[in-house]
Amino acid sequence: MKEITEKTQTIAARLFDEGKIDIFIAWEQGELDFQVKSYVARSKEDVKKIIFSEYAIYNVANSLLKFRDGHERIGIAVKGCDSRGIVRLLEDLQIKRERLYIVGIPCPGLKDPLAAARNYGGFSKKTESDGLARKCLECVQPNPVIYDEIIGPAQSPRQQGERFARVKELEQMSPDQRYEFWEQTLSACIRCYACRQVCVACDCRTCIFDEMKPQWVGRENSTTDNMMYHLVKHAHMAGRCIECGECERVCPVNIPLMLLNQKLIKDVGAFFGGPEAGLQYVEGAKPPLSVYRLDDPDSFL
Amino acid sequence: MKSLMEFIGIEPERYQVAWISGAEGIKFQETMAKLVKDVKQMGPNRKLRDAQ
Fold first, then answer.
1. ipTM above 0.90 for this complex
2. Which of A37, A81, A226, A283 has its CA 20 to 30 A from that of A197?
């Protein structure tokens, strides 16, 4: 980790020296060990603040959205999942490839800062989380898919056993059992919209859930409105979710949101085929649900 | 969408999709008749609503 930090700092400093970039996006250390935030270095002096630690789990591709209207040339350090996020933004024409200088970090698997924060409370004051974050245990793409420069050797995917095992388990249930399961899980939702904020695929400027006139989705904190919110949000994620698992990680009430996303990934794969979202960047390519083709399968509707 | 609705626990009979052109009146009539028949068989929907 230290090695990666040093290499990233060197590369960032070099890029600033060469005048290739105006800002560099990576992570910075917060107050406690596990508090690692997204960080924007604006000059060579800022570079020393950049770190990469086992808690640098935040998907920095999301930070690019703050700069989508500007003209800065951006250097950015990405893990495997973040790089898929960048492909996502490029496909959506949110940012131009020429503006980016991508430094890839093959990710060894990280820990969940929120799990560490939970351990930190109480008398133990333990600042460790137990093992890798769940999203990292299910990671299928730890290596960056798009980069100008890469640090360190490639890592192998950590996803074990049958893919979509959790989804398949739920599919075996009867409709009533499934409804009961979702009713229980989704009724816990407090509509904080953290899952939306942290999502790289959620890059609309005007969000359907913020609109008041007309109000498309009820804002009441009831099971019905919660279910509507999650159905609508995840239906929009179909074919775009890059499986970075951030939504599920940030959820304060631990709703298994990736279940919905994985179900959609599985379906989109079954109906449209092709690689999963953000796994490869082809200029001008569009995710299957962003375009209309005459041979689109009806069954997806 | 349909498979997502099923995944969340809605019976597949309640949500049906069909392509019908404006010129296909009879097909529309048949589809609607089938939908109504299916839903009547299912009985009232208690899901996705608070008023029980």
1. no
2. A283
